[in-house]
Amino acid sequence: MRYFIFFAYDGGNYNGWQKQPNGITVQEVIERALSIILRGEITLTGAGRTDAGVHALDMAAHFDTNTHFDTKQLTQRLNSFLPSDIAINRIVRVKDDAHARFDALWRRYEYHITTIKSPFSVGRAAKVYYPLNVEAMNRCAAKLIGRRDYTSFSKVHTDVNNFVCEIRIAEWTKQGNNLIFTIEANRFLRGMVRAIVGTLVEIGGGRRNESEFDAIIEAHNRSKAGEAAEACGLYFVKAEYKINIYI
């Protein structure tokens, strides 16, 4: 039987989502808890990967088990077992061939920036204390919408076959003293959102000319874009799936 599990986490204490040998990750913590409670080895496959320090509001993953359980009760047991910086939102039975990564139609991220010093944003938002031209940032963000090659915003050494993504939302909004960048695409390249945000912030701060943005996209060269924004401001918001995968 296959299940989707949806969960949130503060990534500050973890070396990213995906298991790796050089640090504790969100995946291994949840897998360990599931394996203990269900009394069998459980392996999770995530909808995406997040780097060290990146957060998630509703990350999705799937796992297989032959153990029968009540999904609400398992959610409660996991939440009492897991550390306070990881929370299970829900567990849902899905078709046996449903896949958290390959069946995701759209993925959404947010990037949070605080424009004032606040103890409540430490580790959860990037700090930008100089003025930003949000209108210019949004004009450039609008140019991202569509299907094209985004090599300029990808980490160089990756194992993908191509760098083509389709973006359908890319916009900045202001909420009080915070700026939030929302971006939604069918897939994301490694480091893509942080590279885009870093470039847009350079434009908003006047360090780059707004007219350069088209050339940056078309260059297909990571060195032409801006520096990656801090990990602490990035949030995986959700993955969207067809309703027919659920049982």
Any overview of this molecule?
With 247 residues, this protein is α+β, with helices and mostly antiparallel strands. The chain has 2 domains: 2-102, Alpha-Beta Plaits; 108-238, Pseudouridine synthase I, catalytic domain, C-terminal subdomain (Alpha-Beta Plaits), CATH 3.30.70.660. Helix content is 21%, strand content 29%. Strands 1, 2, 3, 4, 5, 6, 7, 8, 9 and 10 form a 10-stranded mixed beta sheet that branches. β2 (45-46) and β3 form a beta hairpin. The longest helix has 13 residues, at 26-38. The protein is globular.
State the total count of DSSP E strands: 10
The CATH topology label of the largest domain is: Alpha-Beta Plaits
SS-based class: alpha+beta
Q: Evaluate the radius of gyration.
A: 19 Å
CATH class of the largest domain: Alpha Beta
What percentage of the residues does DSSP assign to strands (E)? 25-35%
The termini sit apart by 11 Å
What is the average per-residue confidence, as pLDDT, rounded to a whole number? 95
Features:
Alpha-Beta Plaits, 247 residues, alpha+beta, single chain, globular
Condensed summary:
Helices cover 21% and strands 29% of the residues.
Question: Helices, strands, pairings?
Answer:
Elements: E1 2-9, H1 26-38, E2 45-46, E3 55-64, H2 71-81, E4 86-94, E5 106-114, E6 126-127, H3 134-142, E7 146-149, E8 164-175, E9 178-185, H4 192-204, H5 213-219, E10 234-240
Parallel strand pairs: 3-10, 5-6
Antiparallel strand pairs: 1-3, 1-4, 2-3, 5-9, 5-10, 7-8, 8-9
